[in-house]
Amino acid sequence: MTSPTPTGHPTQQTEPEVIGLLAAGRLLGLSRTTTYRLAKAGEFPCRVLRIGGRYAVPVRGLRALLDHTIPDHTNLDHTNEGGTNSRPTPQEG
Predict the structure, then answer these.
(1) For residues 78 and 71, what is the distance between their CA atoms, to the nearest angstrom?
(2) Does the residue 92 lie in any domain?
(3) Domain residues for 50?
(4) Is 27 inside a domain boundary?
């Protein structure tokens, strides 16, 4: 009797360990110019590797940064602790 599942090592689609600098910059909402400027200055928000003449960003560090910067979606009603609307109301003239 044969098994319905293949034997051996299944082929899995894995995520890359690194992505290009511009792709990382786009995920962070940065322009091309700003992305390269920050990378050259060593001020990119996460680790950047220089491999030959190219930049690469480790996906693990980028994911950690994005997970950290995602706002808490539990308080989407724009209220402060007192329960009042945090947006100023227009003044009547």
Answers:
(1) 13
(2) no
(3) 18-68
(4) yes
Q: How many domains does the chain have?
A: 1
Q: Is the pTM of this model over 0.90?
A: no
- State residue 22 phi and psi, 5-degree precision: -65, -35
Residue 79 domain flag = no
Distance, CA of 35 to CA of 11 (rounded, Å): 35
Tens of pLDDT, residue by residue over 20-76, are 999 999 999 999 999 999 999 999 999 999 999 999 999 999 999 988 776 655 444
Going by pLDDT thresholds of 50, 70 and 90, the confidence category of residue 14 is confident
**Ordered DSSP codes for 48-70:** -EEETTEEEEEHHHHHHHHHHHS
Task: Answer whether 64's CB lies under 8 Å from 46's CB.
Answer: yes
